[in-house]
Amino acid sequence: MAVLASQAPIFYAENGCAELSNYLRASKPSMIFVLVDSNTHNNCLNIFLQQLETTITIEVIEMEAGEEHKNIETCSGIWETLSELGADRKSLLINLGGGVVTDLGGFVASTFKRGISYINVPTSLLAMVDASVGGKCGVDLGNLKNQIGVINQPEMVLIDSNYLSTLPANEMRSGLAEILKHGLIANEAYWEKATNLEALTLEDLDSLIIESIEIKSRIVQEDPTEKSVRKTLNYGHTLGHAIESYFLTNPNKITLLHGEAVAAGMIMATHLSYKICGFPEKKLENITNKINELFPKINLLEEDYEVVLDLLKFDKKNSHGNINFVLLKDIGKAELDVIVPNDQLIEAMNYYLKN
């Protein structure tokens, strides 16, 4: 089964192996490079290589794991390695890893020799339902998230939930945040399904992943370059990214996983939605309770507010000096480009801390 995310077909489970083999036979890349990080090198690479049917030369390139390595210096090292190993414009880069690997690997491929083909094989829940789909590639600039990048589609995305067995619980939770976001911006039935985890089986998880990808794919198909409806995919990310950036470089804070920051950001965004767009109060309470049940409270203090608010000016949705938020009138009903005054941002952070 394939789902189109703009131009990139997405294949599931064993179909992915067959489609990859077909692609390699048809496109005949000069060489195949597999980008991994230290975790996926140990846990996923052998599984992937055993499924790869080809006589084309394969080289493995390893980067350090973690958001702190998602930068231009890491890209430079990979570009140099590609050059040294003889990569040309007909080479193929396969990104085997979580969101950092697929984001950075897509950017490396899109810029090396003005662009070589790449394929994403996400191995984390976050990468499966979000980072690997939609063609956004990029790196951080210092502690500022995804400031440098391009939108360029992979040749295909291969989704295999068997890789999730290698993930620790906090990484699974991180991916769940994006699934919950898709529920909030798309429809209430999916939100209810995604938060009813007591009844969740592995088969249900596969179904949730597919539906989450379909939600994102439909939005990307409609608005590939984020002029309008694709902005809804940033729900909870404006404050979430600012908090994540702040925690990344503050020595007194524990670095947050992306989903942990976004979970907090979604509670704050829903409070803003209630205050500004008339989002139903009962649903705000339900969303707050559900997210707090699933995610540990982050160590945000009132003295952190000023720095977090200052980081908002680097958000990529901003224009003409305005900080633009995606808010909700109701579940599945978004309001784009909402300008929020500072006093309401502080109120939203206070709400998060006290609930």
Automatic annotation (TrEMBL):
Cofactor: NAD(+); Zn(2+); Co(2+)
A Gene Ontology BP annotation from the UniProt entry: aromatic amino acid family biosynthetic process
Designated name of the protein: 3-dehydroquinate synthase
Keyword field: Cobalt, Lyase, Metal-binding, NAD, Nucleotide-binding, Zinc
The organism's taxonomic lineage, starting at the top: Bacteria, Pseudomonadati, Bacteroidota, Flavobacteriia, Flavobacteriales
Function summary: Catalyzes the conversion of 3-deoxy-D-arabino-heptulosonate 7-phosphate (DAHP) to dehydroquinate (DHQ).
3-dehydroquinate synthase N-terminal domain mapped to chain residues: 61-173
GO cellular component, one term: cytoplasm
Source organism: Gillisia hiemivivida
InterPro entries for the chain: Dehydroquinate_synthase (IPR050071), DHQ_synth_AroB (IPR016037), DHQ_synth_fam (IPR030963), DHQS/DOIS_N (IPR030960), DHQS_C (IPR056179)
SUPFAM superfamilies on file: Dehydroquinate synthase-like (SSF56796)
GO molecular-function term, one example from the UniProt record: metal ion binding
Pfam families: DHQ_synthase, DHQS_C
